Amino acid sequence: MEYFINPKIIWRSEVLHLGPEGDLSIEVFRDDFYRSHVIQLEYFDLNGKKLVEIVEGFTAVILQHEIDHLSGILISDKIKNQKLKTFEKVDAYKELK
C-alpha cells in the first residue's frame, strides 16, 4: 500500500492523454477527459519525509483525478468546463465563417 500525504502536482507534461473517467460517488457522470501523461508529484510519506516522484501513464491519470477531489474539483465540474470549451471552439469557428 502506498501513502501520499498532502500530494501536490508541481509539473505537468504538455503531452495529454484522452481517456474515459467517472466517479463512483456520482455514477451518472462519465466522459472522456484530457489529462497530462506525465506529472511530477510532491508529497510526504508516513514518516513526514518530503518526496518528489515522476509518475506517468494510468497512475498519473488516477493521481490527477484524486488530487482534483482534494482540491474540491468534482467530475461534474470538469464535464461542465470541458463542454464549455467545446462550445467556445464551435462559436469561434462560426465567427470565422
What key attributes describe this structure?
97 residues; alpha+beta; Peptide Deformylase; 37% strand
Task: Provide structural commentary.
- The model is unreliable at 84-94 (pLDDT under 50).
- This protein has one domain (5-96): Peptide Deformylase (Alpha-Beta Complex), CATH 3.90.45.
- The protein is 37% helix and 37% strand.
- It has a three-stranded antiparallel beta sheet. It has a two-stranded antiparallel ribbon with strand order 2-3.
- It has two helices and five strands.
- Strand 4 (38-44) and strand 5 form a beta hairpin.
- With 97 residues, the protein is of the alpha+beta class.
- This is Peptide deformylase.
- Keywords: Hydrolase, Metal-binding.
- It comes from Kaistella chaponensis.
- GO terms for molecular function: metal ion binding; peptide deformylase activity.
- Belongs to the polypeptide deformylase family.
